[in-house]
Structure formats: structure tokens, C-alpha cells
């Protein structure tokens, strides 16, 4: 049966995830789009080649497989177009290169993903872009930082590692008064829990490595833009020769089908553990925007539909024994692996390094431990954390 697009528009999130980005009738009834490997694409004649008058012209431009994933993200994001890139960092750097030129001024939130900061401080600066970091809690006050040459405001909510919330609508409204493009890294919430374009953001950035993949085996990023800013984004992707691989696109499409169910499980387990950590004497604070105790909770409650599986807590420690206590805690863990990234089925832990911050300085009341809560049973994860606390107490 052919899908009713109007019916799908009003469907629930899991129904949408089960049906976006595929048209079985276009592929002999098979429910998953095929993986099309391509570099060269043949044209029927010289005129068609000259005018590029067919849907596919070269493997870097698009394939039916990558188009299927882009269509799925456009549906989820409400965007005019989506590009696929090889990593989450590329999903940040490509739009920055698309919208910024030498002599421009860019405002970047200070709680940003560390590799993003490194890109800004190195490549963007070398290319003649002036980068300024701003307080994530600035809200509409960002207008005071806008200059005649400000061309881009980058947001991330919650912030990496310390989870500061941003008033995205207020920031976007202030920026748009001056015709400034607003970008947002929305990896934490995914389009299921927050749709940036609905809140005034122009370009939504996602490390699809995380929850869309869900299995810690794919590295990819997506960038989805509104109609005004889509042409420049697509032009930059083509000019740079950046593309997502069809095998990876197929795997992300497969992961999307269960993302809603997985996120719901991540969320429930994470809230249970975060609330439990608030009761522990070993913990100074829990940094999770979904908790009423968190300073940005009201913004999260107002704008977001849910929370994912990553947050941090502060392990009580004096400055002189902070590293030793953090290492003792981490080394005692079993179910929590020590590794970067998140969004997969397994739980992960690490000590956060905030030494590059300029405004949102590192907390002084202990070591910041970031947890990714996977799909394991909560009781087992609590036992693991208790083992970590016991190792700290034994120092």
C-alpha cells in the first residue's frame, strides 16, 4: 500500500521513524532502500551529460541510498535540505565554511563541543574569521555582542559536558534582526526531543554517529537547513567534495527505525540514575537539565520534549586530589567502558577536561565525570557506580 503523506505528517514519532526515508514501491516492494555504490554515473547522450538532466550525475553528489537518509532527516527536522558528511565535526565545519568568509565575526557558545572550538581557533582563525565565545546563558542579551560584520551565531543546547541550557528562540530572534545565520548542534536531543528550525534556528547539525546510529559502529554527520540557507550549504558540500558513504547511510537508516524506542529507554534509565546520584554523599552536584535542581531546568522543561542518555556529575574532591579520585572511580568500573562518543547501546564514562573554557570555567567543587547511560539494566549500572565510589573511599 502506498503511504499517505498527510497521514504520516500527523503520525507519532515511532510511526514516522518506521516509515520516513523509504518508498518500497520504488524498489520492487523491498521495505529497505538498496545500497547503491557509485562513482561514475552514465548518461544516455551528450546533451543529457551537458545539462546534467537526470537525478544522479556522480557518486559524490548523491545516490538513492544517501537521498533516502536525507529525506528522512528532512522529514524529522522540517528542513528544506540535508547534507551528509563523514563525521559530527565535519557537520560543524562544513556549514561554518559555507557561511563565513575572511573578515567576518562569528559568535560561538563557550560550552561548545571541544573539537568545534579547536576548529574555530585554528582553521577559522587562519582563514581570517574573528571568533568570539559567549556565555550560554546570555539569551536575548547576545544582541549586545553583535557587530556589523557578525555573520554567524553557533549554539549548542545542552552544552557539551556541563549541559548549560540556552534560550534558543531568544538568541535566534536577536540574530535575525541583523540577518545573521544561526546554527545549532542538536546531537543531544535529536529532532525527536527538540526541533531547532521550529525555534528559529537556520541550520541544524547532528552527529549521526550517536543516537541515529545507536550501535557505536558508524561515524557520520548530518546538516539540515531551512529554505533560505539551503542553497549555500549544498554549494559548499559540492565545492568541498564532501559526501556520506552509502553503506553508512544504510546503517543510519536502519538505526533510525528504533531510535525512538532506544531514546525512551536511555531517558528512563538516565533519570533514575541521575536522581539517585543526587542522594549520594560522594556527589557534589548532578549536571542534568531535566532535574529541577539544575539552573537551566525551566528552559529545558519549556522547550524540550525529552532528555537523552548523557549527563555529568561532580565527584567531590579537593584540587590536589581531584585527578586521583577521578581515576580511582573510573578504573573501578566494569559495565561502563572508558571511551569517547556516546549514543550507543553501551554505557561509557570519562573525566571531563574543561581547561579550554574562557567563560564557563571548570567547577571547583570536584572532578566532572560524564556518563553515557546505555541499554543495560539500571540495577547493574548502579552497582558499577557504587564500586567506583568504594574505590574512591579506599584512597
Automatic annotation (TrEMBL):
Family: Belongs to the trans-sulfuration enzymes family.
Gene Ontology biological process: L-cysteine catabolic process to pyruvate; transsulfuration
Modified residues (N6-(pyridoxal phosphate)lysine): 210
InterPro entries listed in its UniProt record: Cys/Met-Metab_PyrdxlP-dep_enz (IPR000277), Cys_b_lyase_bac (IPR006233), PyrdxlP-dep_Trfase (IPR015424), PyrdxlP-dep_Trfase_major (IPR015421), PyrdxlP-dep_Trfase_small (IPR015422)
NCBIfam families xrefs: cysta_beta_ly_B (TIGR01324), PRK05967.1 (NF004626)
Family annotation (Gene3D superfamilies): Aspartate Aminotransferase, domain 1, Type I PLP-dependent aspartate aminotransferase-like (Major domain)
GO molecular function term, any single one: pyridoxal phosphate binding
UniProt keywords, alphabetically: Lyase, Pyridoxal phosphate
Reactions mediated catalytically: L,L-cystathionine + H2O = L-homocysteine + pyruvate + NH4(+)
The protein's name: Cystathionine beta-lyase
Cofactor(s) recorded in Swiss-Prot or TrEMBL: pyridoxal 5'-phosphate
Amino acid at each position: 500500500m502506498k503511504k499517505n503523506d498527510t497521514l504520516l505528517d500527523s503520525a507519532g514519532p515511532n510511526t514516522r521513524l518506521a516509515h520516513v526515508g523509504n518508498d518500497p514501491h520504488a524498489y520492487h516492494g523491498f521495505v529497505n532502500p538498496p545500497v547503491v555504490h557509485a562513482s561514475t554515473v552514465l548518461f544516455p547522450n551528450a546533451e543529457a551529460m551537458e545539462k546534467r538532466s537526470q537525478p544522479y550525475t556522480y557518486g559524490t553528489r548523491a545516490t538513492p541510498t544517501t537521498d533516502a537518509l536525507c529525506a528522512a532527516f528532512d522529514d524529522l527536522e522540517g528542513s528544506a535540505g540535508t547534507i551528509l558528511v563523514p563525521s559530527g565535526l565535519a557537520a560543524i565545519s562544513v556549514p561554518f565554511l559555507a557561511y563565513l568568509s575572511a573578515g567576518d565575526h562569528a559568535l560561538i557558545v563557550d560550552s561548545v563541543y571541544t573539537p568545534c572550538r579547536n576548529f574555530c581557533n585554528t582553521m577559522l582563525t587562519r582563514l581570517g574569521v574573528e571568533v568570539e565565545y559567549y556565555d550560554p546563558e546570555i539569551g536575548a542579551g547576545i544582541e549586545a555582542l553583535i557587530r556589523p560584520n557578525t555573520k554567524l551565531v553557533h549554539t549548542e543546547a545542552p552544552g557539551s559536558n556541563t549541559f548549560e541550557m540556552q534560550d534558543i528562540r531568544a538568541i535566534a530572534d536577536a540574530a535575525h534582526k541583523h540577518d545573521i545565520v544561526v546554527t545549532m548542534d542538536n546531537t543531544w536531543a535529536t529532532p525527536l526531543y527538540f526541533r531547532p528550525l521550529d525555534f528559529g534556528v537556520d541550520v541544524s547539525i547532528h552527529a549521526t554517529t550517536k543516537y541515529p546510529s545507536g550501535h557505536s559502529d558508524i561515524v557520520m554527520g548530518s546538516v539540515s537547513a531551512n529554505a533560505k540557507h539551503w542553497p549555500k550549504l549544498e554549494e559548499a558540500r559540492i565545492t568541498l567534495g564532501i559526501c556520506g558513504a552509502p553503506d553508512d547511510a544504510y546503517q543510519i537508516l536502519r538505526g533510525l527505525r528504533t531510535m525512538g524506542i532506544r531514546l525512551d529507554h536511555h531517558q528512563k534509565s538516565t533519570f533514575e540514575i541521575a536522581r539517585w546520584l543526587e542522594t549520594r554523599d560522594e556527589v557534589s552536584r548532578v549536571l542534568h537539565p531535566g532535574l529541577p535542581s539544575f539552573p537551566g531546568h525551566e528552559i529545558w522543561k519549556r522547550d524540550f520534549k525529552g532528555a537523552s542518555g548523557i549527563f555529568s556529575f561532580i565527584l567531590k574532591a579537593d584540587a590536589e586530589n581531584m585527578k586521583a579520585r577521578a581515576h580511582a572511580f573510573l578504573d573501578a568500573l566494569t559495565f561502563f567502558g572508558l571511551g569517547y562518543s556516546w549514543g550507543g547501546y553501551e554505557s561509557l564514562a570519562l573525566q571531563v577536561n574543561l581547561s579550554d573554557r574562557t567563560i564557563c570555567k571548570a567547577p571547583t567543587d570536584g572532578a566532572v565525570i560524564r556518563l553515557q547511560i546505555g541499554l543495560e539494566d539500571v540495577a547493574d549500572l548502579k552497582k558499577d557506580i557504587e564500586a567506583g565510589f568504594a574505590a574512591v573511599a579506599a584512597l
